[in-house]
């Protein structure tokens, strides 16, 4: 190996002057060391550059192959240095744009920002996720072609759009019937009523990714409608925090409610508050039960900055926190984009249920069913894995802080107005007295 | 609601219901939309679904086509089968109808293709 690398190739590039004094505009020479190259350069007035030649080819793929054979050495010696790409031509001129096209081997996905812009999107809600952030959220799940991705708090489905863009098949659920059926008030100031065909599915169609849309369902997260052995590749969601969207689940504070059969068809179930810590705890439990091994759950977690400590982050025995990025929302609050990866199967009890679930698929005889029903019954007992969640009063803290600031601001504004009024009166008095003296 | 989704839904959270699977379908409006055929995805999905439930649902909706009673071996190479099951899983949609809990008979309406799995407050 060292024998082979004893000589290095150098490219001598001559100036296009006194052409008869040199062999060719380019000349590839083999030299022992960079010192030798420097020595030659120090005496040549016709040499523009002496360049260490790493690879030489008439096409990009050939260049690539050559570069890869010496990659290790190149990477180790130039790891920490910065670099610049220069496009030079001989006997031809490139415009700046043509040069840039040569440099830019591949683009980022910034164009997605424009393509997925909320301004042009058919169906949006008050809290539709910013396209940039939804792409980031989905990337955090390592979403890939053919994955099944679920957003259990889907809303208008912004996150699903990004997931489908990356080739995932998307499912969503939301407790709000009106939202999924686009019967809420329009979020655009210019729009008086929702159009008839607004929906998550219509958005998918707008972006040409309807093939990656599976379904959305109206469902209460605390009463999951997914069968227990349904396995998902990733869960990505922006749950409500109780600030701009309320956090609710089906329930009632009244004792013994009953809804008659005639009422049942048109009845809108009543909802009760769903405490944030419970929501996150349920989310992690749900993720641990439904994610495939190594699958990820990604979600926003609101924090109150003054009192936040990392101990408040949700913890689950089967999930490992792999990323945590903060988006500052105001002087007192932030939200963290948390990414957890499933590292362990949920305890034996769930395994049994999955096992019987698949076994159940194989048989349809009644007697066996009953035996399994019994096991399911054991499994479906309320179960509380050790799962810790912090901040239980985010909403109170958020509004208290804002309330106080509001009062301060109001007092200041009031004082300002009083001052302006005094000044104005002074000016009026002054002008009146000057008019008096003039007359 | 596509039949893939139907395959993943249950009514186990209704009070007193233990398995709540599979949900019966009653369809008033069924739509067929062409969806891009992605054999890799279908192959990946087959082990996740309950095949017999899919067959029964497809049969009911009249879209069982040439689907056999059991999943054949070496599905990866069986493009005809993959296309058939692709059609049943992703192209057939219940736009209007009901899902019915097999144990309690509770109905979950499907409107504009969206199943409403919400329970009322007296059922939770």
TrEMBL record, chain A:
GO annotation, biological process: methylation; tRNA processing
Matches recorded under Pfam families: Tmrp11_N (PF25904), UPF0020 (PF01170)
Keyword set, alphabetical order: Cytoplasm, Methyltransferase, RNA-binding, S-adenosyl-L-methionine, Transferase, tRNA processing, tRNA-binding
Coiled-coil region(s): none
Domain tRNA (guanine(10)-N(2))-methyltransferase TRMT11 N-terminal: 24-104
Compartments where located: Cytoplasm
PROSITE patterns membership: N6_MTASE (PS00092), SAM_MT_TRM11 (PS51627)
E.C. number: 2.1.1.214
Chief subcellular location: cytoplasm
InterPro entries (alphabetical): DNA_methylase_N6_adenine_CS, RlmKL-like_Mtase, SAM-dependent_MTases_sf, TRMT11, TRMT11_N
Transmembrane segments: none
Cellular-component GO terms for this entry: cytoplasm; tRNA methyltransferase complex
Residues of the Ribosomal RNA large subunit methyltransferase K/L-like methyltransferase domain: 120-245
Catalysis: reaction(s): guanosine(10) in tRNA + S-adenosyl-L-methionine = N(2)-methylguanosine(10) in tRNA + S-adenosyl-L-homocysteine + H(+)
Source domain of life: Eukaryota
Gene Ontology molecular function, alphabetical: tRNA (guanine(10)-N2)-methyltransferase activity; tRNA binding
Function, as annotated: Catalytic subunit of the TRMT11-TRM112 methyltransferase complex, that specifically mediates the S-adenosyl-L-methionine-dependent N(2)-methylation of guanosine nucleotide at position 10 (m2G10) in tRNAs. This is one of the major tRNA (guanine-N(2))-methyltransferases.
Family: Belongs to the class I-like SAM-binding methyltransferase superfamily. TRM11 methyltransferase family.
Subunit note: Part of the heterodimeric TRMT11-TRM112 methyltransferase complex; this complex forms an active tRNA methyltransferase, where TRMT112 acts as an activator of the catalytic subunit TRMT11.
Protein name (record): tRNA (guanine(10)-N(2))-methyltransferase TRMT11
Species the sequence originates in: Trichogramma brassicae
Lineage: Eukaryota, Metazoa, Ecdysozoa, Arthropoda, Hexapoda
From TrEMBL, chain B:
GO terms, molecular function: protein heterodimerization activity
InterPro entries: Trm112, Trm112-like
One biological process term in Gene Ontology: tRNA methylation
SUPFAM superfamilies: Trm112p-like
Pfam families, alphabetized: Trm112p
Stated family: Belongs to the TRM112 family.
Annotated protein name in UniProt: Multifunctional methyltransferase subunit TRM112-like protein
